[in-house]
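Task card 7
Instruction: Convert sequence to structure tokens.
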Amino acid sequence: MRGVKTMTKIFVDGAQGTTGLRIFERLAQRTDLTVLELPEERRKDAAARREMLHTADIAFLCLPDDAAREAVALAQGSRVRIIDASTAHRTDKDWCYGLPELSAELTARIASASRVAVPGCHASGFAALVYPLVQAEILSKKALLSCFSVTGCSGGGKPMIAQYADETRAEELDSPRQYGLTQTHKHLKEMHHISGLETAPIFSPIVADFYCGMAVSVPLHTAQILRRMEPQGLQEFYTAYYAGRKLLRSAAPQEGAADGFLAANTLAGRDCMEILVGGNERRLVLTARFDNLGKGASGAAVQCMNLMLGLPEETGLTL
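Output:
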């Protein structure tokens, strides 16, 4: 019937995990979307999932990697556009990497894509810091980098959240804990792939006793930079590179760490990212700060959906 607007049908496959729940919460507030749901007893039923995937206009996959691949197979023959929050397709050449701020070209590709892979949280911060420097030839592709990242316990999903919430937990959980000690963290592959570097960085993730938020940092000697720049010049570079972006901005150190301490949970509950440059004329520390469940997961997924629907990318998100 003319004059009746058909709302976009959305299906969240795996709505029980932390990312899926956050996506579902965001979509529930929207009046321009219809969210399709499966009864609890059928959410792992392959036939029911296939029916939803073939009915939906856009599907979010918030699943383990193998289950995400299974969902893509179930969707074959449909017109559904898929946004995958798992690790399964982030370096797949047939999928679009879902970090639109990296370039205008990537933004346009996401808008028209049928398959989009949401970046990993640690990888999002690393790419936002390093990709622009490599593209602008400020940093050589041959640079050997290291990266450390402090994140809240929600990054480990429900099992880790429960571990930290347990009143009888081990004393070790009172202290920040480094992991990924074998240098095989699942985000390393995409960090290497998307940054443009010839060699993957040394990556040291750290989980601490707070719920959500993260700070991803890359230390540099200014001697590593091809166009010698001190902190202010590099901060101005990021400001210009990300100009006009609603969800990613460059923040001056006095604004982001006024007391000399940079907290990882400052942007908890928000869907944006801040870039901060600290250091001096010899040594620099580049930091991306954001919510691992926001711009690092569900917020990024909804941002990609908005672009795919031709909407302002910040629609329904918290800045």
